[in-house]
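[09:14] KT: can someone run the structure on this one? pasting the chain below
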Amino acid sequence: SSGINAEWPLRPGPIPIPKQTRLTAQKPPLGRCAGIDPQDILKEREYRISQRMALRLKELETYDDVENDNLKLRANIEAKAIRLIEFQKKVRKEVLSCMQRDTTLETAFNSKLYKRAKKQSLREARVTEKLEKQQKLEQERKKKQRHQEFLNAVLQHVKEFRDHHRQTQHKTLKIAKAVRIYHENAEREEKKERERIEKERLKRLMSEDEEGYRKLIDEKKDKRLLQLLAQTDEFIKDMTNMVRKHQEDLRDARMKKKEKSTDCDSALIPLL
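[09:31] RB: done, structure tokens below
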């Protein structure tokens, strides 16, 4: 191994095959040209490949004495890969045969061909039947339990629904009663207040307290009475103006009459 370098060497080229190991075909008779047989070519190819692998294995065995561990490891891996070629061919052949068998029309849709039939004994059949019966009973029990839980949930919901609406109705009636009582009391108090103001107004009216009477009307804010008072004030004002005008007319008439009488007296004095 003196010619081995630190780097991984290149793979060897084609190995010359001895003449005595070559396949020889029979010489064809004269006058006819023999064709090329593909089987002979494949055999020749396989033979050449096997010879090259054997030579390569012998060459890799020489790397056991190399001090470079990396080179030795790579040589060992390549040697094992070469030795596993036959096993790989066998595995590929089995896989291809299984794929061809499974993809045919006769076996592709028949699932039973992929299962291995197993004979059941009488004991196993009884155990299986017992297990199936227990499983069926368990399923029935769970089904009944779920149905019962559903019914209980429905009944509970009905009860809660009724209680909720009963409480809501009770609260509504209670609030309605409180509102009715509030309005009745407010109406009663308002009526009492109106009666009190009416009595006070009549009292002021009877005592001729005009200022207090007007104050009560302003507090009550009775538009009808305010309108009547306004009309009354206007009527009184008109009456006052008319009386004042009448008095002034009477005064003027007296003054004129008095002046006439004075003129007559002054006219009679010279005649005397």
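[09:33] KT: thanks! Confidence is low (pLDDT under 50) at residues 1-25.
[09:34] RB: yep, looked fine to me
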